[in-house]
Amino acid sequence: METYSRLPITVSGGKGVRLVDTEGREYLDCLGGIASCALGHADDRVADAIARQAASLVQPSNFFRNVPAEQLATRLHESAGGWGRVFLANSGAEANEAAIKLVRKWAGRGRFKVVCAEGSFHGRTLATLAATGQAAKWEGFEPLPAGFTHVTYNDAAAFDAAVDSETAAILVEPVLGEGGVVPATREFLEALRALATDRSVALVFDEVQTGMGRTGNWWAFQAYGVTPDVFTAAKALGNGVPIGAVVARDEIAATFGPGDHGSTFGGNPLAAAAALATFDALEGDHLLDLVPEKSEFLRRQLEDLPYVVEVRGLGLMLAAVLGTNVAGSVCASALEKGLVVNAVAPDAIRFVPPLTITTSELEEAVRILRSAMDEVLER
Ligand SMILES: Cc1ncc(COP(=O)(O)O)c(C=O)c1O
Which of 24, 46, 86, 225 is the most buried (most CB within 10 A)? Predict the structure, then answer.
């Protein structure tokens, strides 16, 4: 079905930060499967783990326990700082859907509302679409599940006013991803933490895009020093292999019992093995430690471009904001010149490259981007 406006390229392979198309042309990929391939394409360690697991056990069903899923749950628990129980899903939307069900069950009868942010993106299932704060994406699909309200991002007073006696949770991304790469302020997340605690609602962070090292910590909440009650992950968790996860603190997680939620494929050993190998490789190569330096380098390079009025974001999730709404044309021109980036807003170009990218590759990316900007903006 025509659900995507696709680029005029068919990709046939990739290695590290490079993609190759069917014509044999190479691209420097600063989008990384939309923040999914933290280790780059076709990482050998993840490929080996998948091959080994595929030859051993792929889908025993959730009637049984399996070792990779339980090891992954432990890994997620440890990465959070030693808290939380885990539900494994297959995507970001599914992880958020599970989190929404979980907080509703935890909050109890009569408390079902979720306060979300304008401009947010949480997925395309009906509930996660309802949570998504972009009205254009709702069109044609109403009525959506009830109970989702949207207020201004980074406005703690607006969230405070929106929480009432029927509220179960507050759900936010630590950095709006699809909404234009807009980071939360520390004060905002701290205020949400205090608000959630005071009013006994759950604080849920959608870390689908910000997670797995992108900000230089395993999770963006650690970069902010604000711990949620629940967070969700997907995208880079399996370095591109479909997987999602919900991590919830014990008391909330305990409200899910047998039969409350499930997934045929969720927690399958194949995807779990890919995620374990991703954790190992990110850790083994100390890639998180290198994020601040690469982020600073890219930020400075982008700030030096003549048409860039602002660079915003966190870690290796940055957007170059232009003075005019030509981001789409600039990205199209960049693609022709061999660079993959995307227009996350009419005036903003997003970089979410593999964390393995080197400073010289970042320099190359900015050089291509500059030439694309020259071409489009001089026209
Ligand atoms: C913050 C956030 N949440 C949820 C999703 C949905 O994830 P998926 O496409 O895996 O369902 C996305 C995807 O872009 C996302 O950026």
Answer: 46
